[in-house]
């Protein structure tokens, strides 16, 4: 055991987990079971974690920060987003349906996208200081496909994605036991437990590195500077 290699100093970090299950509380969510493993690991290191089951909230569809300004009568997203704004780590979790992410997961990504044009105090896109990860559950194939969609989306809007930032569990193809069902083998899966643990630690490592470094260096990625004419060493071949 190389416990002497275990780093410290994760106190003060915040992580928010979004569960894209289609089951409203208090129904049992298998995705919650997998999320609990990652939360426990982080909380043992002093990370403050929170969990939001999106289906429990009246979140409007759309790609604007407040959809009440775009025709919707109600929208709880403006009350939820401050938790994202304050977080160092955002984990998008959910089930597989028809080989793809759930409608709740897709809605969440769209609402995160609504804030991607906002800027930090440094002038970078809003999500530059944050790291993202992904957890998937189901009983048919599709973990990698769903994770690919989530992690691509997160990095595209500014999140940093560390190595091995996804994990999941699936049962047999076709109808069968779900993760928390008795005899499923899900909670005992060494492969799933290893990948979930690695993901949790890599998210914490990267969040700590970014926090200590003051975030991603700002040179070369400031949209307002580009708009003002700064080209950060870019040379247009037409003018060579």
> Biggest β-sheet, characterized?
6 strands, mixed
Radius of gyration: 19 Å
Percent of residues in beta strands? 15-25%
The chain-level mean pLDDT equals 94
Q: Span between N and C termini?
A: 58 Å
Protein name: Flavodoxin family protein
Domain NADPH-dependent FMN reductase-like: 14-164
Organism: Paenarthrobacter aromaticivorans
Pfam family, one: FMN_red
Describe the fold and architecture.
With 240 residues, this protein is of the alpha/beta class. The protein has helices at 30-44, 77-86, 103-113, 143-156, 190-213, 223-227; strands spanning 14-19, 48-53, 89-97, 100-101, 131-138, 166-170. The longest helix has 24 residues, at 190-213. The mean pLDDT is 94. InterPro entries: FMN_Rdtase-like_dom.
